[in-house]
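Inverse folding, one chain.
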């Protein structure tokens, strides 16, 4: 599985490890920030809270991953990765 990711992304073993760590830390930071922001807002847990949490996580994830990627030295990989995802979402084939 890891060999396939290395080949697909064109990275070495250390870079793959740092990329996986960035995904994990960025996702965790994103979830933590989303919960904290909703606690500050004072919204009770319920359907609205879940909807806003999903929306916040969707918005915060790329930011958190980029921030975490800087100290781990993977910023260029994640900048390209996020631009590729945005290209797919927006229908812009140039970023694929």
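Residues assigned per position:
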């Amino acid at each position: 599985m890891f060999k396939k990711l290395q080949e697909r992304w064109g990275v070495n073993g250390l870079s793959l490890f740092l990329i996986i760590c960035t995904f994990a830390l960025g996702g965790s930071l994103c979830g933590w920030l989303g919960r904290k922001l909703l606690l500050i807002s004072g919204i009770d847990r319920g359907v609205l809270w879940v909807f806003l949490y999903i929306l916040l996580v969707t918005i915060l994830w790329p930011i958190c991953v980029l921030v975490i990627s800087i100290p781990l030295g993977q910023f260029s990989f994640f900048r390209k990765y996020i631009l590729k995802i945005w290209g797919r979402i927006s229908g812009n084939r140039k970023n694929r």
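The radius of gyration is 16 Å. Residues 2-95 form one domain.
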